[in-house]
Write a structure and sequence with these properties.
Helices cover 41% and strands 17% of the residues. The protein is built from eight helices and six strands. Strands 2-3-4-1-5-6 form a six-stranded mixed β-sheet, sandwiched between helices. Helix 2 links the parallel strand 3 and strand 4. The relative contact order is 0.22.
């Protein structure tokens, strides 16, 4: 089975840090692979079949480094990956954190773990100011609403039946080690670690 773990949360909720910590010591090599020569889908390849979507950099890494129109290209890439087995993708950020992308991944047979980092908006705003982000408060509130709507949409039993998804809500104010352990204990990470042991 192919697997996708995606981390969402308001700006400055700690998504990038949580992902970086969860992947600690798993890096084998970095590369940029493409679906075709015309439609590149940047991602980082880790050992034993793990891939992260987006690019690695100090500020705003992950899928938010990708073009605004990247989603159709990533979906076509997922369609190619669906023909293979035991692929483990992980991503975070606003760019692909939406119901259309997640639903399509489920349609393609991916087991999806959706990790929602929750954090008080005031703490997130203070973190944003501290790192020099120039967010508009209206835009900031819109990102919060978007995350809440994604989670609420899967509370509908009919939607959950059609698009089964595993929602994991975590506290973004936890210390980094606790958050790292919680993410690494999610079903997809557990299955990936098991496959590494088998290999």
């Amino acid at each position: 089975m192919n697997r996708l773990t995606y981390i969402i949360g308001m700006p400055a909720s700690g998504k990038s840090t949580a992902l970086r910590n969860a992947l600690e010591n798993n890096i084998c090599e970095c590369s940029s692979k493409t679906m075709t020569q015309e439609d590149p889908v940047p991602h980082i390849t880790y050992k034993c079949g793990l891939m992260t979507l987006g690019k690695s950099r100090d500020v705003y890494p992950g899928t938010d480094t990708l073009a605004m129109n990247i989603q159709p290209k990533v979906i076509r890439w997922l369609e190619e990956l669906a023909d293979e087995d035991n692929q483990f993708l992980i991503g975070e950020g606003d760019r692909l954190g939406n119901n259309k992308f997640l639903s399509r991944a489920i349609d393609l047979g991916f087991h999806v773990d959706l990790v929602y980092l929750q954090i008080p908006s005031q703490i997130a705003w203070e973190r944003s100011e501290k790192r020099g982000s120039n967010f508009n408060k209206t835009w900031f509130k819109g990102r919060i609403t978007k995350c809440e709507n994604i989670i609420m949409s899967w509370a509908d039993s009919a939607i959950q039946e059609k698009y089964p998804i595993n929602i994991i809500q975590l506290d973004g104010t936890w210390n980094p080690k606790t958050l790292q352990d919680k993410i690494k204990s999610t079903p997809n990470f557990q299955e990936w670690h098991q496959s590494v042991k088998v290999q």
